[in-house]
Amino acid sequence: MHVIIDYREKSSGLQKPLAAHFTVVVKKISYGDYLINGRITVERKTARDFLLSIIDLRLFKQAVSLKKYCSTPLLLIEGNPYATGLDFDQKAIKGAILSVQCNWQIPIIFSHSKEDSVEILAMIGRQDAVATNVVHMRGGYRPKKLKNKQLYLLQGLPDIGPKLAHRLLDHFKSAFRVMCATIEELMEVEGVGQTRACKIREVLDCENMPSG
């Protein structure tokens, strides 16, 4: 497992304990604070910083970027945002949490301490490493209408859910054109950032090597 830690997180105190679980590299990350296994982007905030980011609207700008440019974004809140000692409306806190989870579909994980954060990040890395070695076969639903078959096909691409499948089909007009699109052309579709586009092209372009 490997993790890239944004250089601005060096003062967090998590780098050394994370080295017991990951191969650690510290450098600038465009979005988020931790990039786990090259796939999962974690934005870490202490409870106090979470509240301050609501006040200066930084939280919502970050949520937009995480959702747009990161394939699997997560928000990790360290500490209890309702018990920071700051004079803050609890309804506003709850509203911000719901906004991140519902409007941007970014999961929020709460940790009790730095030690708990390290354990959570390590668990995320281990579960991701296991998941990448498992091929999940889609079963059950089998669409009958042509458009639904096209959407079903597109949802088999990396990190493409129902909404992005619709956007891709609306933009390119056919599943075949999606499959032939370049990285730059894929990035023209809202929600398909460079990371997603590269993953799609990697899956479509990689030659299958004979087993055995």
Structure description:
The protein is of the alpha/beta class and 212 residues long. It folds into two domains: 2-131, Rossmann fold, CATH 3.40.50; 146-205, DNA polymerase, domain 1, CATH 1.10.150.20. 47% of the residues lie in helices and 15% in strands. It has ten helices and six strands, in the order βαβββααβαβαααααα. It has a six-stranded mixed beta sheet.
How many domains in all? 2
The class by helix and strand makeup works out as alpha/beta
What is the CATH T-level topology of the largest domain? Rossmann fold
- The CATH first-level class of the largest domain comes to Alpha Beta
How does CATH name the architecture of the largest domain?
Answer: 3-Layer(aba) Sandwich
**How much helicity do the residues have?**
40-55%
- Overall mean pLDDT stands at 90
> How many DSSP helices?
10
**How far apart, in Å, are the first and last alpha carbons?**
26 Å
Total number of strands: 6
Strand residue percentage: 5-15%
